[in-house]
Specification:
The protein is α+β, with helices and mostly antiparallel strands. It is built from ten helices and four strands; from the N terminus they run ααβαβααβαβαααα.
Length: about 290
Amino acid sequence: MIKKVFASMRRSPYQTMAAVLIMFISFFVAAVYFMSSLTAQRVLTELASRPQVVVFVRDEAKPEDVDRLKKTLSDSFKLKDLKYLSKDDALNRYKEQNKNDQLLLELVNAQILPASLEVSAVDGSELGKIYDLAIKDPAVEDAVYQKEEIKDLLIWVESIRASGLILVGVLLIESILVLLIVFALKITLRKDEIEVIRLVGGSSWQIRGPFIAEGVIYGLISGIFSFVLTYLFTVVWHISPIGVIPALASFSVPFTQSPVNVILWGVTQTMVAVLIGFIGSYLAVWRYLKN
């Protein structure tokens, strides 16, 4: 059967190249968007792990007021970190940040810097609720929250996911349709040969098997090549749609550092491509070789 498959591929090289190329492009784009989505999620997680809500405590607030506020926030939300900075801690941080500017250091002392709580949430979407709860507390003087930045980031991540899913879905459907067209042409061109096989008592599998196997081989080839190219782009060359944003260029795909994960990724990508090749060729055989 394998000889028949490769003979069929040699007899119609342009159809073969068209099918493999379309599938290769589809899976390459799908893999790049998948990697970009993972990286975007990593960016969101990293930013959410930093102090996103800073709560400034009133000077007259007592230690028990601060403890009560900390307990309220911890009980109400799933926090990644909750850190209290006293006036002296705030001064030490200020000195570290401005150690090269002596004038700024001379103008500030611990008394004019407020104590604060730095809050990091596990889920970045809860930061707004944390801000709303903290600002109402009588021990709180003020609070700062990067509302627009976080909101834009959440929208950006969801947009990548949604657009990626739509694009990948369209490309996969396109791959199946191209396979249907290619195998319809192949079946038409081999109509006389198929009829001879039927007349001499050939089984249904002898007729349909080579076409299905050819579709599987298309998927195997396109899956392997798309994995190799995606690996070169995202791991070796560090190129991705997210990488064009300078501020995010340092973020890499989270799981590509492990050889085991890379192998699993390659196997999964290739197997999905093989499955699409099987589905496309099977549908064509079912449609055009019913009898």
